[in-house]
Amino acid sequence: MEDWLRLCFPLVAKNEAEDIYSMIIYSMDNDSAWALSEDISPAECLNSRITEWEGSLLMIVDCEDGQRVHESRDMGATWTEAVGKLSGVWVNARSGVSQKESLHVDALITATIEGGRFMLYTRRGYTSGKKRATALCLWVTDNNRTFSDGPVAVDKAANWMLTSTLLHSDGNLHLLQRRDNGEGRVT
């Protein structure tokens, strides 16, 4: 995929009926022209994250019944629900727990580290003795093994983080967080 993909971003769009969808916008020619994906996620599935994995684009969206993973091998011309894809990664909300508090995937990237391809993602987790997710944990998988690298942020506030983003650049991993109160932080 790296040979044919230059830049790709998730976006949210509305149709005439005001239904909200997730889709992608991408460039394949040195960023001089941009195209929208032809197919879209199911209505009312929001907060899309995308990454490239094994020749496919993966899009994770938050839906009322939990997270869904969609896969495209043709730059969004078609998307199929990727049931069972990286099954150790995707966790739906527990019964009685809101999507915001569940152990769902937040930030998501792929990176080549020391010659190996890895998917890195953040997910809220529990610190010892806590009954609610108060830690943001970094997870790593190669699609065969998945392990937690531990908490990268911990907070006591109930709604302490709105979103996070991961960036792997020049051998460094960067975490950007945005909080409900509008403040941000880079780690």
From TrEMBL:
SUPFAM superfamilies: Sialidases. GO terms for molecular function: exo-alpha-sialidase activity. InterPro entries: Sialidase, Sialidase_sf, Sialidase_trypan. Residues 6-171 form the Sialidase domain. It comes from the Eukaryota. This is Trans-sialidase, putative. It comes from Trypanosoma cruzi marinkellei. The lineage of its organism: Eukaryota, Discoba, Euglenozoa, Kinetoplastea, Metakinetoplastina.
